[in-house]
Design goal:
102 residues; 3-stranded mixed beta sheet; 5 strands
């Protein structure tokens, strides 16, 4: 299997875990969203960028960005519908500094 290309993100998320209050932590299942998936949701859904624009910012192709975003949406939906904690962790990412363009 080919190693994943580094995905570029603007910044790390401020909060790393979201959990429902209706279940006790001991019996609560979780779903892990990677940092690059979190960034894909931010760019596409919050910033309203096209997949091509967002892929360029993350330095991946448009099809790769679409796959990342689709995976993120499925994980978040699973967490919301099935009352699971959503943890943001992992992924092959580098933080883009203000000096870096594109």
């Amino acid at each position: 299997m080919r190693p994943k290309k580094t995905r570029w993100i603007k910044c790390l998320p401020g909060e790393r875990c979201f959990r429902p209050k209706c279940k006790k932590p001991g019996v609560l299942e979780g779903v892990a969203v990677t940092i690059d998936e979190f960034e894909a949701i931010r760019l596409a859904d919050l910033e309203d960028l096209t997949h091509a624009q967002a892929g360029k910012l993350m330095k991946v192709s448009r099809p790769t960005f679409t796959r990342i975003l689709s995976s993120a949406h499925k994980k978040v939906a699973d967490g919301l519908v099935n009352i699971k904690a959503i943890k943001i962790e992992g992924g092959c990412c580098s933080i883009k500094t203000p000096e870096e363009k594109g």
